[in-house]
Amino acid sequence: MQQDNNTDFEIRSLDAICVNESHLEHKWYHNSKYLIVGILFGIVFVKSEVVSWFRIQEMFRLQSFHMYGIIGSAVVVGMISVWLIKKFNIKTIYSETIEFHTKSFNKGQIYGGLLFGLGWAVTGACPGPLFAQIGTGATVILATLISAIAGTWVYGLFRDKLPH
């Protein structure tokens, strides 16, 4: 009997990042607002020292609350935002419904989290502020960026064989 590689398509489609992706077509300059917000976000990262290798090392050595406070406040803001979206059935700016799908916990998330944390501790760079770090002149972070891209590619290559 031939095995169909797409038997779990319905389940895997819910695992995609762009479940709520809009199908609207826009002009090329429409996404410039994201560039502006990204630049402002990068400035906030630099000013709050989130991109500081020393701050990241303090966090992993449990020497300072600074990074835990920033990460914790981001988690709280995210939780409140999701709760508000669900409670008031908030739609996108284009009146599209926002859908949340439940995801089950599995051991692959533990392995991935440990690998992510190890990489973060060794390089002093989280994927979020990579570009802000490069923008501050820390060009050595280009090696981390290339490694992150390569790691994402390798994950995509071996995803079906990994514990999910």
UniProtKB/TrEMBL annotation:
<feature type="transmembrane region" description="Helical">
    <location>
        <begin position="110"/>
        <end position="132"/>
    </location>
</feature>
<keyword id="KW-1133">Transmembrane helix</keyword>
<keyword id="KW-0812">Transmembrane</keyword>
<feature type="transmembrane region" description="Helical">
    <location>
        <begin position="66"/>
        <end position="85"/>
    </location>
</feature>
<feature type="transmembrane region" description="Helical">
    <location>
        <begin position="34"/>
        <end position="54"/>
    </location>
</feature>
<protein>
    <submittedName>
        <fullName>Transporter</fullName>
    </submittedName>
</protein>
<keyword id="KW-0472">Membrane</keyword>
<dbReference type="InterPro" id="IPR046513">
    <property type="entry name" value="DUF6691"/>
</dbReference>
<dbReference type="Pfam" id="PF20398">
    <property type="entry name" value="DUF6691"/>
</dbReference>
<feature type="transmembrane region" description="Helical">
    <location>
        <begin position="138"/>
        <end position="158"/>
    </location>
</feature>
